[in-house]
Amino acid sequence: MKKLCPLFFFFIMSTSLSAQVGIGTDTPSEKAMLEISSQTNGSGPYRGFLPPRVASNTERDAINPGAEDKGLMVYVNHTKCIELWNGTAWVSVKCGEDLPYASDLFISEYVEGISGQNKALEISNFTGSTVNLKDYSIDGYNNGSTTRTYTRTLQDYLLPHGQVYVVVHNGTPIDEALLTRNNERLNINFNGDDAVLLVKSGVTIDILGEIGNDKTYAADIILRRKRSYGPSTTYIPAQFELIDPSDYSDLGRHDYYE
């Protein structure tokens, strides 16, 4: 151990005396704290830079960075996206060109609980870019009506690619487990036989149920959209899984890609 002490001391002194660090180069730029060369001192095979990789958005979110961690970068295997933390949210910088993007935002999960006002909608963005929700609204056509019962405009919020936004009913009583997953609370009132629409600038882009038809299609149930299905102006039951109405475990995340 004593023989290692002088070497360790030399390393510490060298590090403290040199502000620049080089990987693959003995002469890093004086203007850079860290320089990574694609070769070893200008010779040998070329190499690339491999950023930290995480399996999916779940593992990315588990990093839990703060405002002081701006610039943190990861590659998400599941979405094939390079993402940067901007201090408040992850932002996709580049995603694989081979991925099929959704044509617009869509309702990825629908919660219609057995009791109380346990109602929620999860809206997903897999368009390949960040989208401002202020141009979108949730519209309801209740009890077979062909006239819109309500419209609820979403707040001014930038939703990055690969992330979701959860709207929870603003009434009571409501499960605490559901409340912990909400991004916004609005008076979205549906009871399993009401058409629920996601609307962009007055144009319907996604729908659950059918306007003018009060047939029960989703009472006391959670509808979870299956992978690879985006927005549709016609409700297609086969695109959804039926989930126990008290199982909120997947609410707040969505897997769009296979």
Describe the structure.
By secondary structure, this protein is mainly β. Among the domains are: 53-95, no CATH class; 106-238, Immunoglobulin-like (Sandwich). The protein is built from 3 helices and 18 strands. A 6-stranded mixed beta sheet has the order 14-13-8-7-17-18, with no helix packed on it. The chain has a 4-stranded mixed beta sheet with strand order 3-4-5-6. A 4-stranded antiparallel beta sheet has the order 11-10-15-16, with no helix packed on it. It is elongated. The N and C termini lie far apart (53 Å). The relative contact order is 0.14.
Features:
258 residues, mainly beta, Immunoglobulin-like, six-stranded mixed β-sheet, four-stranded mixed β-sheet, 3 helices, 18 strands, 31% strand
Outline of the structure:
By secondary structure, this protein is mainly beta. It has helices at 4-17, 57-62, 176-179, and strands spanning 21-23, 34-36, 53-54, 73-76, 81-85, 90-95, 106-112, 119-124, 131-132, 136-141, 150-153, 158-159, 164-169, 184-186, 195-200, 203-208, 221-225, 240-243.
Write the layout of secondary structure elements.
Blueprint: H1 4-17, E1 21-23, E2 34-36, E3 53-54, H2 57-62, E4 73-76, E5 81-85, E6 90-95, E7 106-112, E8 119-124, E9 131-132, E10 136-141, E11 150-153, E12 158-159, E13 164-169, H3 176-179, E14 184-186, E15 195-200, E16 203-208, E17 221-225, E18 240-243
Parallel strand pairs: 1-2, 3-4, 13-14
Antiparallel strand pairs: 4-5, 5-6, 7-8, 7-17, 8-13, 9-12, 10-11, 10-15, 15-16, 17-18
